[in-house]
Amino acid sequence: MDRSVEIELIDDLLGLQAQTPPFLDEQWHRESLERYYSPDIFRREQAQISARLPQIIAHGSALPEPNAYLTTEVAGRPVLLTRNEDGAVQAFFNVCRHRSAKMVREHEGCEHRFRCPYHGWTWNNIGDLIGVPHEKTGFPGLDRSEFGLVPLPCQEYAGWIWLSLDSDSGIEVEHHLGDIRHDLLAMDAGSHKIFATETREIKANWNILVEGGIEAYHFRVAHKNNIADLFPDNLSSCHSYGPHLRSILPRTTLASLADQPREQWRLRDHANILYSFFPGAQFLVQSDHFVWIRGIPLGPDHTRLELSTLVPGSENTLAKQEYWRKNHAFTVLTLDEDFQLAEDIQSGLASGANSHLNFGRFEGALDTFNRIVDQAIA
Fold this sequence. Notes:
single chain, Naphthalene 1,2-dioxygenase Alpha Subunit, Chain A, domain 1, Rieske Iron-sulfur Protein
């Protein structure tokens, strides 16, 4: 983060904290329930957002060496990532060109060629078809160059591997990020290592899960047994950068900065910074590490979340293992409370008790996010 921006954000937060009430929109908002359960809206989100926009699907360390591979899923479609012998990352549909079987079943590994488990058609890791059993008798005249694996736009940027399923538009990550790319670069993800990862299957719409992280109104009640005392009641700020959001969740220690020289101010020591990189990645940045939350929408009421704690590679020593383990466990414990509430909300939508959800004047970030989604699927 640019130093002048950091100072400006701390100034703003100190000013908000001194106000009573700290921050209010002009009016409160009502949100239709349909966006959280409509199969039609979910299909549009998958087509116009998940399948079209560039998104982070892996940390660069997931492909640590030439011939490493990784399989994943994007917008319901199987994807194969490979690092070729020149060190470049490539992406393909993980689909055999013969009968559309899933070609690679393993999640990760190191191979220079891939053999379909159905009939044995084989490709190298740059996508060329190199073997067809009984080719001359079964497929006379077959032109192997027409049956390479189907490539997908892919780019390694800022320590992350980005993918788009929109082969017509290609991929331009810097253009997609705009000005907020400077914050992402400053996180220096390439020098970090993934310490631990956990996966959650949540019976809730992906929008509800994003909304739960971009307001502090719930901290005092929902997290009363863990983080409530670490944060002021209902104080946060949010700025949008195109479709991306940067939310600041200050800690109670922020007030102490008012008496300190500005050159000693460091935002990460006195706040959690939550980046929501549209559409599928959130980063919870803390004082000495950060958590990557990858959201994978699977249905109108079903989302898979991958929670990964990333720590500085130079500090991932044996002596610090227990410290990182406790940090990871504490973060996951807190997030699990949010996930349970998201499932409760999802089940409550069908009760008929409400025709709308209600966002208070201090929950404006939720309305901002929903307008971003609406614009993307318009």
